[in-house]
Amino acid sequence: MHPKTRGKLVLTVVGWLAAGLIFFPIFWMVLTSFKTEVEAVATPPKLFFTPTLENYITVRERADYVHFALNSMIISVGATLLATLIAVPAAYAMAFFPGKRTKDLLLWMLSTKMMPAVGVLIPIYLLFRDTGAIDTRWGLIVVYTLMNLPIVVWMLYTFFKEVPKDILEAGRMDGAKPKQEVWMLLLPLSLPGIASTALLSIILCWNEAFWSLNLTTSEAAPLTTFIASFSAPEGLFWAKLSAASTIAIAPILVFGWMSQRQLVRGLTFGAVK
Amino acid sequence: MASTTTAAQVPGTSTTVGGRSQRNVKTLPLVAPSVVILFLWMIVPLAMTLWFSFQYYNLLDPSVGGFAGFENYTFLLTDPSLWTAMMNTIFLVFWVLVITVGLGTLLAVLFDQDFYGRSIARLLAIAPFFVMPTVSALVWKNMLMHPVNGLFAFFSRSLGLPAIDFFGSFPLTSVIIIVAWQWLPFALLILLTAIQSLDSEQKEAARMDGAGPFSMFFFIILPHLGRAISVVIMIETIFLLSVFAEIYVTTSGGPGLASTNLAFLIYLRALREYDVGGASAAGVIAVILANIVAIFLVRSIAKNIAD
Fold it and tell me: How far A252 CA sits from the closest chain B CA (Å)?
């Protein structure tokens, strides 16, 4: 065999082995979700079995699962929309009309992200308790909006900067008013960027598990909190846990795979391109 | 590029600044909402944490109150549980960083090579990052690390070894393994992006000069990755200082305080023992720790905006 082909084959084996090992816990979880509860805890573990959809049906029939999934969706999408609405004007102003302070402002916004959540847990908890925001969807939406706002502003800013200024100028010369310029030129032109920004924000909200565990109990609890309730010893139904988890992570996994490139930009604040 | 327009052409909406058409846009109302609410979000809770840290404040006992001076701090600093939690925090951050950056660099080099089905293998390898922390913690705890029915127990028994009681005997190490698994894809993704931005001509030139794979790695790739690695370290550190959900669903900080980090200690003090003053003092310490890291991170990002 040609040494180059052999090298590629060796790399293929090593590469897939590494990927397989890393992915294995997820694979095992998905596999377990198709077992019966007895098979799920069987020793030796069963690799071959008759798959059943029983767990998915049970999970779907439990009305509360739908309730938690709906909470996750409403909170993630709500916080993302709100953050985008607040961030678009700011990013537009900073990308197209930069002043002397724009750079400092951007850095300051990032620095607010460096605040560890635990440092402000107590005041937020007490404020929430006193205003009746504990265990409400809007309470979590507000926190997630603020949590992601710096990242959203930042990403939109970098995407807006890539929009060719000439096109906006041409629009201006044709007499486009500022509102029209934003709505009819800037937003359509940067739609892919806005979409991946929103996707990242949704991923971060969906998987957030510090504020959701501390600020919600049942009414507004998203999936992160619901899954955590399986940690109680009496809740040890591995197959059902696996089925609930698989549904909980599937949409976000797909979103994450779709936006992996932009993710690097968003998570490193453009420090790695 | 030089599409200029004069104020006369579009009266009232454009002026010429530096050869470019510019609107007379008032940027303040556009930027203000973001700035104001972020400012409030940053300053109000922080001020409250600071304030509480100097107060006697217990949620269960309204009779205690008033200015405490530095008593919360002296109590905290002389309390061995703070130091245990601090050491656990540092231990956790350090080892997760070592594992994720070390393995992440190797994997990034691996996934930079051309092999069959590479893009699909890469998707599989970054998947753990998108799994919510409570799910990954429970999957590892129950299905893999469970001392009786877990997969690891089965493997060690098959080899004739006793099953390891991960969370009983090595609680902090077990948490570290789970957290490292979640963050490995993050390091991989960012380092891979950085490697791919390496000039292929430079690599080719090094190869022509007879550089083998090892000198290639140590003299071309690793120096190029320096910045990306430091960014990974700083961002991970900020998130790892606040690891919470993984501890919450697996060990609840135990046994004893064996896997309690600073974040979990604050949670215990505030929401389980209702000692707002003491928890706030610990919160201030967490903020100071994070800020030491943040200063370096912001500085390195600032350098990047400049170019």
Answer: 6
Q: How far is A145 from chain B (nearest CA, A)?
A: 10
Interface pTM, i.e. ipTM: 0.85
Q: Tell if the CB–CB gap between A86 and B280 is shorter than 8 Å.
A: no
Of the candidate ranges A39-48, B35-44, B71-80, the one whose mean pLDDT is the lowest: A39-48
- Give the pair of three-digit tokens for residue B274: 């209702």
A250 has a chain B CB within 8 A of its CB: no
pLDDT at residue number A66: 84
Chain B residues closer than 8 Å to A111 by CB: 294, 298
pLDDT digits (tens, 9 = 90+) for B242-293: 899 899 988 888 788 888 988 898 888 887 778 888 888 888 888 888 888 7
Looking at beta carbons, which residues of chain B come within 8 Å of A41? 149
Distance, CA of B170 to chain centre: 23
A259 vs B97, residue with greater confidence: B97
Question: How far does the CA of residue A228 sit from the closest CA of chain B (Å)?
Answer: 6
| Residue B59 placed within a domain | no
Q: Which residues lie across from B58 on neighbouring strands?
A: B275
For the stretch A205-232, pLDDT in tens is 999 988 999 898 888 889 888 888 877 7
SS3 content of chain A, % helix, strand, coil (to 5): 80, 0, 20
- Contact assessment for residue A58 and residue A238, using Cβ atoms and an 8 Å cutoff: no
Q: Which residues of A touch B132 (CB under 8 A)?
A: 206-207, 209, 223-224, 227, 248-249, 252
- For B179, the domain range is 70-306
Q: Is residue B296 part of a domain?
A: yes
Q: How far is CA B183 from the centre of its chain?
A: 8
Cβ-based contacts under 8 A for chains A and B: 325
Q: Which residue has the tokens 């979700």?
A: A33
CB-CB neighbors (< 8 A) of B49 in chain A:
119-120, 122-123
Residues in Cβ contact with B57 at an 8 Å cutoff, skipping those fewer than 6 apart: B64, B65, B275, B276, B277, B280
**What residues have CB less than 8 Å from A115, skipping those under 6 apart?**
B42, B46, B287, B290
Q: How far is A8 from chain B (nearest CA, A)?
A: 6
Residue B84 lies in a domain: yes
Alpha-helical runs (H) found in B241-268? 245-250, 262-267
Contact call for residues B41 and B31 (beta carbons, < 8 A): no
Residue B63: partners with Cβ closer than 8 Å, 6 or more residues away: none
Residue from the list A16, A93, A116 with its beta carbon closest to the beta carbon of B241: A116
Nearest to A172 among B14, B294, B301 (CB): B14
Chain A residues closer than 8 Å to B114 by CB: 8, 11
Phi-psi region of A135 (alpha: psi -120 to 50; beta: other; left: phi over 0): left
**Superfamily (CATH H level) for A61-267:** MetI-like (1.10.3720.10)
Chain B residues with beta carbon closer than 8 angstroms to that of A43: 148-149, 153-154
**CATH for B149:** 1.10.3720.10
Evaluate if residue A244 carries a pLDDT over 80.
yes
